Amino acid sequence: xxxxxxxxxxACQVIPGGVNSPxxxxxxxxxxxFFVQSAQGSHITDVDxxxxxxxxxxxxxxxxxxxxxxVLQAVHQAINHGLGFGIPTPAEVDMAETIVSWVPSxxxxxxxxxxxxxxxSAIRLARGYTHRSKILKFEGCYHGHVDSLLxxxxxxxxxxxxxxxxxxxxxxxxxxxxxxxNDQEAVSQVFAQYGNDIATVIVEPYPGxxxxxxxxxxxxxxxxxxxxxxxxxxxxxxxxxxxxxxxxGVQQIHGISPDLTCMGKIIGGGLPVxxxxxxxxxxxxxxxxxxxxxxxxxxxxxxxxEAGLAQLHELKRLDxxxxxxxxxxxxxEGMKQAMQSSGHSFTFYRSGSMFGLFFTEAPVYNLQDALKxxxxxxxxxxxxxxxxxxxxxxxxxxxGFISLAHTEEDIEATCRAxxxxxxxx
Length: 425
Ligand SMILES: *Cc1c(COP(=O)(O)O)cnc(C)c1O
Fold this sequence. Notes:
It contains 14 helices and 14 strands. The protein is an alpha/beta fold and about 425 residues long. The strands form 3 sheets. It has a 7-stranded mixed β-sheet, sandwiched between helices. The structure holds pyridoxal-5'-phosphate. The site of pyridoxal-5'-phosphate has 15 residues, from helix 4.
């Protein structure tokens, strides 16, 4: 038995399912996870000494690649001053100023410890600000494991939500309305019926948690205008897309100002960080200025702030987004060529360094479309790529990430491997 298997066996005795977050258990591709020994740049080495080109990138944070020198140095420097104090430190101010200057719609921001905390707090704030209780979300959009957001109603029906998870009371879920992503008509109908009770619409502006797909022309603009019409707030959950598709996220690309924005992943530089921010008048409703309570013992932790700041500054210094676009385009072209030469035309989407591959020839606009992709083919693809030293996400419902540490050679090797795999499907 190899070391990963031994560790997984031990883990299963003392950790539910052997993992601290379910997707890591590889259930969506069958089999067992590998355990990581170390990671550097675009490569991960597992505990059995196998080296892999990584397209999971810590599920998003590792935009510079693994263990970037600048971030490690910033962490080393920060820990010399102590690990955290629960009292303000200068790094929090630097971080807030940096976020405000990068993300167009954010005037004030509060730091938290995860994306889940960010969305949970943003929803509470939206409800507190509007004095309304219903929220609208989209099927297949994931916003962390917040009770009221673990809801995704059945196939396109305009029904009240049923919880996706045991332990979420139906009464909570009933405050969450869900409609298919990219469906303006469904959104209009829900607003016509419940508009004056809807505190907020929360959306992943580019959905990345049911595979990766994109908004139809005008969809995000439509969400902005209908929420304004009904005095509801618009929340962009840019935990994944923020600082990734552009310095200012999807809102910068589309020139849309959401009222609130949720952030995470990249801004922690690999450490546990989230944030939510937006219009000053809304953010000022948070305690201690206003009546909406929100707090955190470890929030704004100085080591995490320095790690995140170092990552953001390095991205800017390297003109990272232009380079990521180059690498992304190279991967897209290579993957499409690999499909063509193997007689397939699967659906592939990309924005900058984010990509999604669906084993279907039909376009994907929403969760239902994504679910039509062939899961068995994905499974085969995943294990065959891994055999060739390439680690794609262990689930068809995840986004692929390229980092600044990926080289042209990495991408070319990946496309060559994909071509072989596509031919075998
Ligand atoms: C990852 C993610 C979250 C949750 O963040 P955690 O740090 O895992 O709690 C929320 N929203 C989106 C869009 C995400 O991708």
